[in-house]
Amino acid sequence: MIVNASECLAKPDEAPDAVAAPDGNRDVLGNEVITEGGTKLGTVKDLILFLGGDGEVVGYELQREGSKEAWFIPRPAQLAISGDALLVPDQIDDYISDDFSGFGGSVDKFRADHGATA
Amino acid sequence: MSASFRSAIGRSVVGRDDAEAVGDLSRFLVDASSRKVVGFVVGSGRKATAYGWGQVTGFGPDAVLVQGPQAEPAQVDDAGSGLNDPLDKRLLMVLGEEVGTVADVEFDPDSAEVLRLLPDGGEPIDARQLRGVGSYAVVVDLS
User: Fold this and answer.
1) pTM (2 decimals)?
2) Chain B window 60-79: which residues touch A at a Cβ cutoff of 8 Å?
3) Parent domain of A76
4) Which of A45, A61, B10, B29 could share a disulfide with B39, CB 3.0–4.6 Å?
5) What's the CATH code of the domain at A58?
6) How many CB pairs under 8 A join A and B?
7) Chain B: nearest CA to A80, how far in angstroms?
8) pLDDT digits (tens, 9 = 90+) for B73-116
């Protein structure tokens, strides 16, 4: 990862709390992804970032039970998040894809259908 | 759509507002007079808590989502609430004849209506024949 300059780096005790001491529930890796209807979609294996700008998280890579393939879902404004689970709207199920090359299209379609903060 | 008590026991209960795992569903609470599931218990023993069915916002194959505060343990005690779980209870006819035990119960998660009692080794019993669910037994009228 390339940053603008070495001055961007900060010592842990000098860094903002959001970076140096984030809440425990901010780490979604390994979280179960559950729809508001009570269906488990998988667990969060990785985050998909949009390079450039603020490094916005645009989706998640999921590990689904019974599948060795990587699955991707657009990131909605999740309903709730904790150290245990990440709740997402039911309609996100329609946008799950195992095609990373086409994932940008899934994100665009999800946002077109439901808005960026659906 | 119907679901069964047995298949739902052990399912994770998750808070809709904070995504916190509350615990695992341990038993259902049934009101025999209305033939409705009125709630369920999470956990067991002194740490058990309960939710009313009206607090359920999602009832899926993997998790039950709930909203709002859970009841105090004392409020879900069988003797105190008058609400009971029919599973594994003796199944008695109205004249006292024992016809088995309740192996499972089918219900409609959307309406909370109890649909059928499934005895061990017998024909399913329509819930309209249900007369009572007590701490000792479940009473049905098969006449």
Assistant:
1) 0.80
2) 60-65
3) 26-114
4) B29
5) 2.30.30.240
6) 61
7) 5
8) 555 555 445 568 899 999 999 888 998 999 999 999 999 999 99
